[in-house]
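Appendix B: a complete holo record

For completeness, this appendix reproduces one full record from the ligand-bound portion of the collection. The bound molecule is nicotinamide-adenine-dinucleotide. The inputs are the chain sequence and the ligand SMILES; the output is the full three-dimensional arrangement of the complex, encoded as structure tokens. No fields have been trimmed.
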Amino acid sequence: MKELKNKNCFITGAASGIGRSFAFSLAKQGMNLFIVDINKEGLEQVKKDIEKTGTIIHSMKCDVSKLNDIENAAKSFYSKLGDVDLLINNAGIGRSVNIANMNLKNWKKVFEVNLWSVIYSLKVFLPHMLERKSGHIVNVASGAGLFGSSEPLSYITSKFAVVGLSEGIFSLLKPYGINVSVITPALIRTNIFHSGLKSDGYNPRMLKDYGKEKLDEVYGSILDNLMSVAMSSDVAVRKYIRQIKKDQLYIFDSQGTKDIISLKGSNMKEYEEFLLNYQDMHDEGTKKHFQKYGINIEDYR
Ligand SMILES: NC(=O)c1ccc[n+]([C@@H]2O[C@H](COP(=O)([O-])OP(=O)(O)OC[C@H]3O[C@@H](n4cnc5c(N)ncnc54)[C@H](O)[C@@H]3O)[C@@H](O)[C@H]2O)c1
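The structure of the chain with nicotinamide-adenine-dinucleotide bound, as generated:
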């Protein structure tokens, strides 16, 4: 997709983070936008701010984990903008999962938002793209969809599925003139970490022993540390758009992710060691952080 000016774009999860940055960047490049999110208030603010620049932009509250919502949004998209040139399936959530006590409701929710939303979006938008023999589908997966990192297990699994789905449709759709890209962000400064934390709640025993205020402080400082080394979503999205314009299947924002998958392809033993060390490093960092606040996290595993 080399030329973006005057083309139409549908973005999910555009009220915040990467989706929001996509909306601002693509507006600057002259695209007409249709943005959706479950967070109506945040979405309206983005629409209002972008509208000031003269961009044609429409918004609609939509829960991407519901087929009906996506169907309604697509109907409105077609009536307002016409054909979809760029479809960005970006909305996603992360929820931590306790491996010893797997919360299946949590797993289902993560799959509905991170994976089923992409399947629904394809079901709704693809027939029209196939008919026109054009369009570009961009799925926002994660580095955690390429290697089993220290992210929540349900999140990793859902993102591996999005990567697999994207690879599968890449070659299937090419003959129809439809391009597919999958974005694999490393660490971007957005709200996903904060909302994930809030939705999970704290370890009940730890909460009883230390209280909410103290745990808010500990987790707040863990997040601050994490965010201090994260990339800004505007910078990341500029990188993504450059690669979308080259019709690349895989889109990266970090050399580190590329190095890891090349290790996976070249030396499986070393890759296994890397996975083990990565987890150890993460666990050790978390343990030390809690220790600073006088909490021995080992007592709560
Ligand atoms: N931030 C990172 O470091 C990072 C890393 C890898 C992958 N990602 C992926 O990037 C994408 C965007 O996340 P972000 O980091 O910008 O997070 P974010 O929380 O800032 O933005 C996600 C947006 O999705 C929306 N959303 C959540 N559930 C929804 C639903 N059911 N229906 C509609 N909208 C919904 C949220 O309201 C929010 O506006 C996600 O798919 C995420 O998994 C992010």
